[in-house]
Task: structure prediction
Amino acid sequence: MRKPILAGNWKMHKTVAEAVALVTDMRDALLAIPGVEKVFCPPFMAIPDVARLVQGTELGVGAQDLYWEESGAYTGEVSPGMVAEFCNYVIIGHSERREYFGETDETVNRKIKAALAHNLTPIVCVGESLELREAGRTESWVTDQVRAALDGLTAAQVAGLVIAYEPIWAIGTGRAATADEAERVCGAVVRATVASLYDQPTADAVRIQYGGSIKPSNTAELLAKPNIDGGLVGGASLQAADFIQIVQLTAKAKGLE
Ligand code: 13P
Result:
C-alpha cells in the first residue's frame, strides 16, 4: 500500500521568523496524525531553520527547486548537494517555474536525475493549462510531460518518485478539479503512462498527488480516490489550521484513523 503524502508548497511566502512560527504552530498536531507523510517546502532562506525544528521527527522538508550542477559559477543557483544537506524532498518542474523561469521538459529531467543522485525524492509536477484542457489535450499533454520527465530513469528510481498532477487552471484559483477529473488524470493518465513505460508494479508503487486549490472543504472527496495518494498544497499550507485539517482528512479518507 502506498503511504499518503501531503506536501505544503509555501512558494515565495514567509520570512525565516514567520516560517519558524508556522512550523511551531503545526508540528505537534501533525505528528499526532498517523500514517501520512507530511512535508514542508519553505523558501530556501527558511530551510535550515525549518529542518532544525523537525529534526528527529517524521516530518519532512523539501526545497522548491534546485540546479543540476554540483557547484561552480552559477550565480543565484542552489546545488543538489546543498539541498540534500537539509532536505529529503525537492519539488521539480512546478508550472510556475515552467511558466516564469524557463523550465522545460529537458531541464526538469536533468533536475530529477541530479536530485536522485543525491538521494532526494523528487516531487515532479505535471499539468495542463486551461487552453489545453479546453482543446481536449489534457491527456496527451500530461502523458508527454510524464514521459519526458522520466526519460532515462530506471524502474526502481521511478517507483520512489512522487508525481504531482497540478492542472494549471486549478492553481490559486479556488477552483479545484473535481474529484472524478483529478482521479481520471492521476490514474488513467499518469499512472497508466508509468505502467506503459515501465511495468505495473512500478506504476503501483509511484505516489501521485493532486494539487490545485486543495482546501479542507474538498480534501475528503479528492483523497478518497484510489489513485490520489496525497496532495501538493499551496495557499492552504500557509494556514496552520487548514493544513492540519487537510492532513487529518487525508488520514481519514485513507482509513488510517
Ligand atoms: P494552491 O493550493 O494555492 O492552488 O497551489 C497549488 C500549488 O501550486 C502547489 O504546488
Remarks:
- Residues 5-253 form a domain with the TIM Barrel fold (CATH 3.20.20.70).
- Residues 9, 94, 166, 171-172, 211-214, 232-236 surround 1,3-dihydroxyacetonephosphate (CB under 6 Å).
- The CA atoms of residues 52 and 86 lie 9 Å apart.
